[in-house]
Amino acid sequence: MTSCETCVVRNRAICAGLDDREIATLNAIGRRRVVTAGESLIWEDDDSLLVANVIDGVLKLTTSTEDGREQIVGVAYPSDFIGRPFGQTSSASVVALTDARVCVFSRNDFDRFAREHPELEHKLLERTLAELDRTRSWMMLLGRKNASEKIATFLLEMSDRLAESGCTPAFGPAKRFSLPFSRQQVADVLGLTIETVSRQFTKLKNEGVVELPSRREVEILDRGALKALAG
Amino acid sequence: MTSCETCVVRNRAICAGLDDREIATLNAIGRRRVVTAGESLIWEDDDSLLVANVIDGVLKLTTSTEDGREQIVGVAYPSDFIGRPFGQTSSASVVALTDARVCVFSRNDFDRFAREHPELEHKLLERTLAELDRTRSWMMLLGRKNASEKIATFLLEMSDRLAESGCTPAFGPAKRFSLPFSRQQVADVLGLTIETVSRQFTKLKNEGVVELPSRREVEILDRGALKALAG
DNA sequence: ATGCCTTTTTGACATCCGTCAACGTCGTGC
DNA sequence: GCACGACGTTGACGGATGTCAAAAAGGCAT
Question: Using one digit for the tens of pLDDT, what is the confidence trace for A44-74?
Fold first, then answer.
């Protein structure tokens, strides 16, 4: 078992700030796990049995209606925390978008550990508050923006988020990046259909705002135009 | 100044569980404030200067685009916590929908107190996690439901939420209740226009699913039908 | 009660986006 | 290289919802 000492998100995840003894305890109750692209880690409405830290890879959080409509309600990147501590059921499924490595804990073990370590709970609180902020601004997008504003906002956000994870040598937003989403998944994030997403991408390409070297690759040619479109 | 001892939300808000000495400290840094219907308590993108507990009344959390489109991203009821601790700016405006009483703290004072009281931070964490769950299920509504599903879901949620606050003598969802929202505000919650909301209300009334005794009053005649419509 | 203003409802119309269907492209295994 | 299947693009079309306008209903002060 790989230990926390060599963990690449050690200083960014909620475990940052724990001392050696605490890390040892955490190490004892957690274990590494690989989730391959497309594989589920947590099921919506299931008993909330586990929580986890993302070490690398990208995962989606989704909710679905009975008739199969899906909405992606969150995306987890390295160092993000996933799962629902202190609750009986999780309100979203968690599925890997890329092959991913996570550090999983049984919810009970984690809850107990967290309650005994206020510093960790505080980090979790800060993270949850930030996630709530992001989620709320996404509600604005879902409720009030039209398709082209949605796509522009999405591309700008991806450019920021993927840069953070160190995909570009320098800081600042990534000019070129590889989407962890299929077209259908982009649609599920934005509350659109795959056809509308495709048409909007083509439109941006024709207008010279972006370049689309391959299905998953995006290069932003005119960030200003994108910002104007995002509204 | 009215003190915590007589506070009606004393045992439901995050201050529950604090001992007498702690309550005294909290009492010293907080103060009661009345917010009249329509009045703002917190402004979007402003420095996050204060946080508060809702004592009574209902408030909306909103985000807006530059061109004036508004989305209600949350609703705060008695015992709910509002504001953005541990952050420099708040991501939403908070405006009273009804006359309301709140217990406000300067963010700095609150942050300091919270960091010294893990039990309070834990309660805040639980509340924030629950709010995140609710927000995510609302994203499903905004992104994937049609107008009639939105309205049906909204009425069922209002019926549950308003019952909790003790508006009905017995437990369970309220059959009849008074909306704290104007038609425009309902539209801002659901990501619709006022006209669409009005037409959907009229449709439900004509189908005998609800009765609308006045602009703000709703009586649910056929909860089963509403649940079926909510999807 | 009357008048005035705000909110809501209703109608006519426009449009954005979803639906359905066909076609094109990419990746993979043989 | 070829065939296959998954994914993505494009086109034609329809309908749900937005827009604009006017009328109706309610609320409030005089």
Answer: 988 879 999 999 999 999 999 999 999 999 9
